[in-house]
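User: two proteins, same treatment. go.

Assistant:
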Amino acid sequence: MAGCGAPGSPPRQSGPGSALEEEEEDDDPALGCDGDLEVNPYDGLPFSSRYYELLRQRRELPVWTTKYSFMEHLEGNSGIILVSGPPGTGKSTQIPQWCAEYALSLQFAHGLVACTQPHSLAALSLSLRVADEMDLNLGHEVGYCVPHEDCCTTETILRYCSDKMLLREMTSDPLLRQYGVVVLDEAQERTVPTDVLLGLLKDVLRQRPALKVVVVTSPAMEERLRAFCGDPPVVRVPGRGPPPQLLYRDPLARGRIAAACQAVLDIHRRQEPGHILLFLASEEEIAECCGAIQTEAVALNPGLGPLLVLPLHPGVGRAAQKVYEVLEESGRERRVIVTHWLADSSFSLGTVRFVIDSGLELRNVYNPRIRAESQVLRPISKSQAESRMQRAAGSPPGTCLRLYSEAFYEQRLPPSPAPHVSETSLSRLVLLLKRLDIADMGQCDFLDRPAPESLMQALEDLDYLAALDDDGNLSEVGIIMSEFPLDPQLAKALIASCEFDCVEEMVSLAAMLTASPCFVPPSTHLEEAVTMRRRALLHPDGDHFTLINIFNAFQQHNADEGWCRKHAVSREALRLAGIVRAELLEVMQRIELPVSPPAFGTDANVLNIQRALISGYFLKVARDIDGSGNYVMLTHKHVAHLPPACCYLLRQPPQRLPPWVLYHEFTISQDNCLRVVSEIQPQMLVELAPQYYLSNLPPSESRDLLMELREKVVAVEDVPVVPEPLGEASGGEDEEREVCVLQ
């Protein structure tokens, strides 16, 4: 459709405005004109009947009424266009297509079209829908690019991508020269990459005036973005229809999960038409609620029709597309989509007539003082509540049930959500900005500036990792670290593995740590059998080594799904780990880092992996203070415990717990457990961690022990070396080679 004349007439390249006018004049393009086939201007093939069917649906979207106005602004002199409207109005599918029309009318002289999404799942879902609407094949003219999956080719002219991927793309192409239009969708989500892109693209526009930037947001963020972007033209999209009926219900007596389940069952019993969208606080609550609804649904009268319960969160992966699958022709099936903040703006469904909102969300909030995240259960914002309510708008209007009181809404809900840049570790962002030659963070234009304390902590951590030189710019190590799509600590550990000859193992470990957790909770009746099978995969030296074991076993069994079920591990997570591993090896080969041959299982290899890990993760070390599993962090005084799935707790017979451990993650939560734990020797920490880091540790018994060890190491280093007799040269050479490995 894009860039062509009215259906039934030859494609016209005179500009998107004229194409739009002629298209609007045809009431029924499916009828055709003069018996000619309308040709798709993007691939040169005739349009299918489905194209016209979807075109009718598109013209009924609220956003369609703004097309002419939007295209006028896009053709005008303004570099930035702001589009404001409620969710479910068609902005995310139609705006990028109109931008493709504009780019086509210019023969893509200024580049392609990119549309960013704050969530990878949304980018994938939207690209599928838009390719269908444009009558094109996904992966050709329309594609998507998300972490570890690039479904684009040289033919791609409309590219949906996660905001994280576009920001990373700027490290190799700071002016984004391959794009003529960049659409920043769902800007109200306030993710770190979208906030940073907003500032960087303002600078790009000064150097590339032909670039067009379209910022799509909710009405609540319109004024702030308008002021930030320099008062650009605004296209306001109307809502879907009359607002829904709004009800409040306090669930305190029964709890959120029970109240949500009861509300779903009550709606179903009343047999009112329409699907249900249920918002809860976390993935754990989603899983619990789905199970409870499915259990209760068994006892319902079959005459009410089936209840199809669908979880929707990042962990479901491609299964998220089930929410769009065509239902049975009988139409008696009711969908219950159980989700959280992911669907605040994404995944619009026109058939939803009931919204149930718990009013809470579980978020991880980073504290730079202790270098750890805390799980915080908190109220959503008023703008989120409004966005959720709008999902039930339409004709006829639906119902929004809030599982909290009106007083709670007025008194406890903040006006807008906190920007993620104020709640996230900034080390990875600072490394990326340094790669973009933004030496001073003050040069970057933020919608909300990060806290100075967070920026200082990020710079300090990068300095500890030797990523910065004396002038605060990226060092050679820092430049190499920025090449990897990893957190700085893991990138440094991977680089250190080149020095310690354990690259093959560290690449596998980095892939396993980057992919989603591989363990799946087994069924209750299989729990004991699964535990026995898992014990065969445990490695005596720690969880990091166990992850390598699992990945190697998965590869040896040719990614067998039956093997995964027997050991209760996720085939999808392990498949993703294989993709990540290949990506990391490709980066290492591209920048010519040495890759040592595999040696997993030898004592020297275990020692080398530990040293590589300490090179990156010396900030994440804990000590058992009483021998009973109470681990105190070195960088702060929080006490944590080993996770239930830790190899040290699962092994039989039980053995002593390691006195010193290195961990991958720690989140202050109800269980306060470390994640992925392996034993280390404190002497190795003294040898490999920067001296000024050890000196800056807060006063504690652990610090005193490390400083004592440091003094002993220094004393040993000061002892003069006595030459050995020549007769022992052969044996001495072997010993010297071993010492070199240890160093």
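Protein 2:
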Amino acid sequence: MSKPKHLGVTPPISTNAPSEEEEALSTDLLNTLKDEGVFEGEDERKNREVVLGKIDKLVKEVVYQVALKNKLPESLARECGGKIFTYGSYRLGVHGAGADIDTLCVVPSHVKREDFFEYMTTLLKERSEVTELTAVPDAYVPVIKLQFSGVDIDMIVGVLQQPTIPDDLELLDDKILRSIDELSVRSVNGSRVTDEILRLVPNVSTFRLALRCIKLWAKRRAIYSNSVGFFGGVAWAMAVARICQLYPNQSASTIVARFFHIFLRWNWPMPIVLKPIDEGSGQFGVWNPKFNQSDRNHKMPIITPAYPSMCATHNVSQSTKQVIYVEIKRGVQIIDKIMKRELPWKHLFEKDEYFRQYKFYLQVNVSSRGDEEHHRLHGFVESRLRFYVASLETSGQFVLIHPCTKSFEHEFACKSDEEAQRIRAGFLPAEPSTPAPEGEAAPGSGAEATVPDAANGQDASSAEAGDPATGSDSDKGKIHTSTFYLGLHLIKRERSATGERRMDLSLPTQDFIRRIKDSDVWKGDDEMAISIRFLRQEQLPDEVFAGMSRERLRTSSSTRQDKKKSKKRSTQGADDAAASEAPAKKAKLAAAPVPSTSGFAADAGSKQASDEAAGRNMVTSAEGGSSATANGSTKPATSVVSIPAPVPPMAKSGGIKLKLLGS
């Protein structure tokens, strides 16, 4: 078969060779990446190879033992074989120091998936080099996660419909897909896609250097996560591969520069494809927006090159698409200066400042008592956050919802029922450097934390945090927690006549929590808890800032608005009054309690507090004045504090009401 004139679905844009300056910039890029520590050392490389060799022997041993169980003669059992393939960043040759290895274990037809998980986990438990072993057989792609001699391994299995697996088996032939189940297709396609990507780029070394650059940029700018709605590793690889096809003879520096410029102007949802989509035999469905409504809904489709072709970016939402666009636009501004020698490469890799970008955040907390159970809950909640984002987008309240790609993990040894209840409700102990919220004892003060209640405006639990109304010995002990964040950019709206801004997110929040609790991962409210809290940027915990400034970034639009407000105050002759009020407002915010899951305003000792305890829905002005009850009547408010939060207790009607107050 003759070699095609070009790689890709269109001819190249340019076949020019790189200039000396472009080559020099590529050398600078390589040196910068080395300084950033993206390359593994020689000892680590050799250790990985040894680990993979041991895993290959384990796969053959599993196949052998299952063959004996199925009454095959020992001589035939030894000939059944078994083989491992790598995929992802390791197979592409762009993995960094400490990166995991995605491993596909291919086994013959007599080894059922259940047999593989049972026998492999047994063999792994017997090895002293193996730690952190977790099997997730009911995942979308069933996986065994482990650490082998310090190397993180994600192990999946593909069962082929053939009696033996020879050592020279190749997976690119579509014939191997005949008669295998859908789970095996998903597993096998990971390796098939990465092999096809390498086959479709004109210069592998240039592709690898450019991809290392883009991967580091995407991770530093927090847009590298398929699970929460950004691009994953394979998607970024295919995007870079497409630029390599368009500039087949260029250096890595030019590929990177063209990457930003082309994708800034890319006409989404026009898909990125590396070769014409193969319809195959029709056994499996392929990506086809003409016939599939779900495929038409994809915002930024990047299509895998191996049959059956799928969209690697189906998780992208309207919000994450906007975030990716903003980061690419920033990349264009920086890369142009780099190519002119006005900036060094390191400026492209500056870390994002996610927790300084937004005025409001949603904090999603989940906790479990068991280590393995929490690992599964964490992964499941992370994979479902995109559905919560999609539901919030349809509420019409936001410009965008920006999910954080990083979660925050903790393990607490609770000394009392009260402490366990607070943690399960999402009130994690503050760091020693963080002042405890009003009414709580500071860490290390020797005083025990008290459980917040309706009387002081903090809720001991939400309907989603189990039933910690009464303590029990079972609440004590070890609790594992995971915290996820969603940054909120609100649509600007006029305030109501009482000066309030109101926002009801109860339906998407309730639906998200129900989605989590209805899964097989959820082990009941006694073992697990979930809570969602609304926080202002000033109320975020210290740990998320990692030593950086807490001061919120000011956008150009907010700066213009500040100038307008300042001008208006000056024309009213209120400059002095505004200046005198500023410290008081700051002190008021600092003294305000952390928002709870109650979502109600509470006035200790007032009828309002008893109303909250009774579960009545009430909306209160954050600036004082008057408060409105559910029936619309008003009454004077005395030193009332509004506590915004998305998940209050169940009202008498059984519904959950979410109000954003005083924003």
